[in-house]
Amino acid sequence: MNIKYSKAEDILLLEISDGKIDYAEEDGPIIIHYSEGHKPVLIEILEASKILTSALESKAKINKNTVLTK
Asked: 7 lies in a domain?
């Protein structure tokens, strides 16, 4: 897997495989590019800093509210 980030565009690219892209599906700020065999090749996260910051804040809240038991 190869990961690239464009600060100028605020896009995170996750290259999952070297396959040839056949089509893409977009769901909000996430675009998944697929091969002809319907396997993910590339994931684009638009507005990456906003999305990842929100995800990390949510994770921190979950961890803060989790009670650990033995």
From this structure: yes
Place of tokens 């993910």: 40
- Contact by Cβ (8 Å): 60, 36: no
Strand order in the sheet with 23-27: 2-6, 11-15, 40-46, 30-34, 23-27
pLDDT of residue 70: 54
d(CA 65, CA 69): 13
Determine the Cα–Cα distance for residues 19 and 41; give it in Å rounded to an integer.
6
70 is a domain residue? no
Per-residue pLDDT tens over the stretch 22-62: 999 999 999 999 999 999 999 999 999 998 888 888 877 77
9 inside domain? yes
Number of domains in the chain: 1
